[in-house]
Amino acid sequence: MLTFTLRRLLLAIPTLLVISLVIFLLVDLAPGSPMSEIPLTVPPEVRQRMIAAMGADQPVFVRYFLWLRQFFWVEPATLFDGWFGTNLAGDEQRILSWQSRSPVFTIIGQRVPQTLTVIGTAYLIGILIAVPIGIYSAYRQYSWFDQAGTLFAMIGFSVPTFFSGTLFIIIFAVWLGWFPTKYDTTLTVTDWQSFVKQMQQMALPVMTLGLANAAAISRYMRSSMLENMGQDYVRTARAKGMSERTVVLKHVLRNSMIPVVTVIALGIPSIFGGAIITENLFGVNGIGAALIGAIHANDIPMVQTLAFIFAILIVIFNLIADVLYGLLDPRIRYE
Amino acid sequence: MKFKTALLGAAAAFAFAPAAFAERGTDGELKLTFPQATSILNPYLSDGTKDLLAASMIVEPLVGFDNNGALIAKLVTEIPTVANGGISEDLTTITYKLLPDLKWSDGTAVTADDVVFTYQYCTDPAGGCAQLTKFDGISSVEAVDAATVKITFAAAKPNPFAAFAGNQSPVLQKAQFAACMGAAAPTCTDQNFGPIGTGPFRVTAFTVNDTVSMEANPEYRDPAKPAFATATIKGGGDAEGSARAVMQTGEFDYAWNTQIPPDSQTAMNVDGKGQFVVAFGSLVERIEVNMTDPSADLAEGERSTAAHPHPVLSDMNVRKALSMAIDRQILVEVGYGAGGNATCNLVPAPALYTSDNTGCIAQDMEGAKALLETAGWVDSDADGIREKDGKKLTILYQTTVNPIRQDFQALIKDWWTELGVEVELKAIDPSVFFGGDAGSPDTFEKFYADVEMYANNFNGTDPETYLAQYACDKAPKPETQWQGQNINRFCDPAYDAMVAELSSTRDEPKRAELAKKLNDMLTKDSMVIIPLVHRGTLSAHSNALGGVLINAWDSELWNVADWVRVK
Amino acid sequence: MSDARASTSKPVSQNKAIWQQFRQHKGALFGLIVLTILAIAVLLGPYLWIPEKLGVAQAIKLKNQGPSLRFPLGTDQLGRDMLSRMMLAGRISLSVGFVAMIIAIVFGTFVGVLAGYFKRLDGPLMRLTDMFLALPLIPLLLVLVMLFRDRVAGLIGPELGAFSLIVFAIGITSWMQAARIVRGEVLALKEREFVLAARSIGTVPRRIILRHILPNVISPVMVAATLGIAEAIITESVLSFLGLGFPPDFPTWGRLLYDGLTYMQIYPERVIWPGVAISLTVLSVNYIGDGVRDALDPRIRGR
Description:
The structure holds three protein chains of three kinds. By secondary structure, chain B is of the alpha+beta class. In chain B, 24% of the residues lie in helices and 20% in strands. Chain C is 78% helix and 0% strand. Chain C is built from 13 helices and no strands. Chain C has helices at 4-24, 26-48, 56-61, 82-117, 119-134, 137-156, 158-172, 176-189, 193-200, 205-241, 253-261, 269-296, 298-301. Chains A and B meet through helix 2, helix 4, helix 6, helix 10 and helix 11 of A and helix 5, strand 9, helix 6 and helix 12 of B.
């Protein structure tokens, strides 16, 4: 397993390089320019000069190699300098966002905490709700609980977050006045009062996302459990006189986890990727909001960097899922 | 509509007058929300309104415009005129005298050197300054003494109030930005995110595309202002959410750009927590008619170029009939409510420059049909579509993705179908449409469609450069990478001649007369441009906020120093 | 092999048994009925319910009406009849949802099975999957549309062109999850005794996959399919929202939902109709999926 992991990690490097090139070409090829948000009152000549000042008029491969160098050398060096007070990076240019003319990694650093707290909490709550619902629904298939769970999951899945989010705003903020509609990113938790405030402002986005996540995961959990409930080994286990608890929670659950692990592992990078619509709706300044803003403004350095970090996470978590498969089912061998 | 705005403003000013005696920093926190978040606080590196508005609370120009479009002195003792000697007789120089004892928010003195530096900063060729046109025609800016700045123009400048006038060209501090000239401009993150200014507030923290946190500027020139101790601008979300946060939940005091459907405006007014205010500048929603052939059968590089006149829309009668078939009042009612007025003009304001052209307001479907009949466009094969010489009246009508524009498309399609015109609709992502990418077929400059709808305006109160955009040589073409502002490829030597005449005319009434003529040539005389709606900017403020005077000619937050909390 | 008669008659009786088991599943039957009704409504409805022809000025006076006999589902902000719009929208949404889902599921399962079963293909295919997962969706769609819209429209006409492009775009960006799930299951399945047994008697891989592996991954695939339909319908609305979908005068459920959002507080029915339609579709597909899964499982079928 260890050699497998190491080999995969080594293989990941060329894979990621190829992915980074594909992303760069894709983003570059997409129509639109960094000037699309500049009003029409700015004449074309001035636009040309603004583009030249960003370096956006350079050939695509020049920009790609500059980005590679910045990402793999200048940025880590800057980070190292920041920790140990060295001067490895010198005055080399960091990756600058075209939209705000500030280092991309500073922006990401500002935004990761919000994304992790809000989206991460929503994901965690989603899993915590979904797994028990899925297990019990499968165990008591077609009971009223299962039917209610199905209905909940289907509604949760078929209404898009832009809809459920707005609905929650109208119910909980406008009518009941319990929660704020806009996330205050300047709030720092120092005492009980600010903690309550933080919980209040997290409530709506977490509810919106938690619903969507729980819906999907509970479906996979249920179907996978059902698949295994009918297997011979379950009958054998029961016949041996094992308690229902042990049969369901130990044997069936463990064997049912493979698709669920896949889904959860696929979802974790998307926590970092943020929930674009939800973040935007509630004003949570997370990564998702940054990505969509950058895409609309054609901020290529920002889009490229975010997409690439996203790619790294996807590769890593899919590797983790593969390792987990082996732990869940020792028969799976990769050698 | 200006009257209405003025009334609203007057009412607001009157109602809250007693509260205006507050001391600095006694009214707590001012909370603003923008649907688009602020990206940068240096107006010279961005021309987005979201950035300009936020910056206008921090940095200031020498002179500004009030809510009626009149000049007001900000950092200078008086407005220079020919009469007071501030402007030379030959209109080639203008001299500003800075206020005595004027201080930056860090406590140092503002001098003429700062003004000169700002000019050099923006005109540096490597800097990519967004406000370059503000400094057009200037040959030098010099500091006569520490408090006097003299701007010299290469030729007589009838309207010298572009540089350092209005929120697009504020004065920057030389000490702060000295190291940020030219190519270094974008790399000065700290400076661009926290410019030192003379405005009522100064930056305490800025998170990109999210929140600007500010506190009252202790060095502000009026010791009693601003009334608020701190201010924050929270960005992001949509117009709906911003309006809701002010009008319904009362979380914020002020929301900029709350353009929502008229029905929703009415519904939100019911909650009684705030009110909508609207500023009418020169923004006009219009349909631009392509005078060249966008047919996909033509080779790339030939499509939508002057080499091929449009087979159908070159006929003036067709353009005229298309305009006559539209009921602009219904468009206003559906899309903008109080935030718009039907118009037939390209230049809808200021009043001095506005042509009395109202002939298009009333819909005339029968007249339009008759016009097409007499021009030979008849439906001979009874398929509901008119034709002439084997050419069908078929139109591809494109615009950006936007709910109001899609409603307009649906309505106008209905009217034109009734007229006997076949209409195909297309909606394009705004970042592509306005992106100007020469490789994309969907930009508004390339205009691979027969007609397209969007809105445009001009800066300040003088429409000269705006009207000059429609000169023959400004047409986008493949040779110029499709850059150019004459979207219609309209070309009339008489028009070009009149534009030249306008630029050499100094006399104000004469200029206005020429501008009106140019406006009419593009609209009622040729219908190359079909104006639809004169749009205002709709903003909302809480009833607990006093002193708001909405302004279309400068930053909406131009008098934020005077805002107070109404108890 | 020895008894030719049995092997020809067997599939018929098996299909019958499956259908009988399916019919016993109340939820599945309900789903099938609802889905059929929806399909009939959107296919035939526009011929049966023809809204009155109103001039623009008249229609505007009738905007935002609640449900009535004249307008069974009310009218929208331009006074257009919601019932006829819902039916027209359903045609597009249902067909986009199903076709895109089928493309994604078939392709995803294909890739997943190949990667899970053949070790040599696992690496390259999964790296390809990683790449597609990592590609930012919106630029990808923008590029796809920019490159292919005019060409496809030139070949098969603008409407069918838009349809194929949208279906293709949604399919190509949503097969990865199914692929990864199926691969995970296959990795475990191929080490199970029955597969080993089949392999040991020399069964060719194609047959093992079709006979032994595929039936056993049907259950997660069904879930993915159910969720895929909802996702495709919603993705279509996002595409329209970006101006990449159908021309703006073609309503779809997703777009009606999005348009109605602005009016949710004042005229809630504007979002309820498309919301309910999408939910009903997803719900019925889910139940049908459940029924099919149960019916295909010989262990349950016997009971």
